[in-house]
Amino acid sequence: MNNDYIDITYNEHRLPLTSYPRKLTRYLFERFILTKITDSVKEKDMKLLDVGCGRGEFLQGFVECGLQVYGVDQSSTALKYFPDAQLKISDIENEGIPYPDNYFDVVYSKSVIEHFHYPERFIKEIYRVLKPGALVITMCPAWEYNYRIYFEDYTHRTPFMLGSLRDILLIHGFENIQVEFFRQLPILWSRWGRWLVPLAKLTRVLTPIQLSKRSKWVRFSKEVMLLSSARKPNYEPQNPT
Predict the structure, then answer these.
(1) Helix, strand or coil for residue 62?
(2) Pairing of strands 86-89, 104-110
(3) What band does 1 get if pLDDT is binned at 50, 70 and 90?
(4) How far apart are CA 205 and CA 208, in angstroms?
(5) pLDDT at 45 over 90
(6) What is d(CA 182, CA 189) in angstroms, rounded to the nearest whole number?
(7) Which of 45, 47, 143, 185 is most open to solvent, judged by the fewest CB atoms within 10 Å of its CB?
């Protein structure tokens, strides 16, 4: 993939910057990462890697949560929007993640794993750079909800379903794996907002797909994501993959 992919496909004219990355990173921080913070491990001591960080919007969001944040991507576009980003450039599938073993407390990726011909290489690298007991958070399109539009992005290579995302993490040594369907509608993430989930499901079934371009509610009721979390064991498996 050409390094200009992010700059061209995700330019501000085509996809303007929004407040969504800040909302999502805060949600993920409070749901998954905050529980890892103890008297001996503070936010400022926790290292998070955003793999495939794109424009860097999620880097900025996690920085605002108080974490040490690093990024890796094959494009340098993030530096245009976040000049102070600790960014490394790498073709991850062929060159790996350019950080040492057992280095990060959290590895996060959104809409990245589906771009790999060999996603197992991606997962192995994440496992390698995570500290024992550390957390991986992965998001990607749910094939069963996105198959009609999945290959509108010509760089999509490997579709994932709930079971296949769970299994690739399990096979490569992760534990405490949770995978769920996730809608990118912040109004649904609060406790009271869950009451609106049936309405989103009804919207997905009854609303013409043509309305997706006019309404975020319609679009993200239809374009359901997968959200997974898992941990690298505190011990070394006897037969690691």
Answers:
(1) helix
(2) unpaired
(3) very low
(4) 8
(5) no
(6) 9
(7) 45
Q: 152-159 long-range contacts, Cβ below 8 Å, gap at least 24?
A: 153/9, 155/1, 155/5, 155/115, 156/114, 156/115, 157/114, 157/115, 157/116, 157/117, 158/113, 158/114, 158/115, 158/116, 158/117, 158/119, 159/114
Q: Is 185 exposed, middle or buried (0-12, 13-18, 19+ CB in 10 A)?
A: middle
| 39-48, 92-101, 174-183: the lowest-pLDDT one | 39-48
Record the tokens describing residue 163, joined without a space: 């079971």
Domain ranges in the chain? 5-184+225-231
DSSP lists the bridge partners of residue 228 as 138, 179
* CA separation for the pair 219, 207 (Å, rounded): 10
How confident is the model over 32-56, as a mean pLDDT?
A: 84
80-128 pLDDT tens trace: 999 999 999 999 999 999 999 999 999 999 999 999 999 999 999 999 9
∠ CA 225-228-231, nearest 5°, is 165
Selection from 190, 185, 180, 189 nearest residue 221 by Cα: 185
pLDDT for res 8: 73
Question: Closest Cα partner for 200 from 180, 177, 216, 179?
Answer: 216
**Token pair for residue 31?**
């749901």
| CATH number for the segment(s) 5-184+225-231 | 3.40.50.150
pTM over 0.85? The answer is: yes
Coil vs helix vs strand at 228: strand
User: Tens of pLDDT along 148-167?
Assistant: 899 999 999 999 999 999 99
**Closest to 73 (Cα-Cα) out of 85, 91, 59:** 91
Average pLDDT over residues 179-203: 96
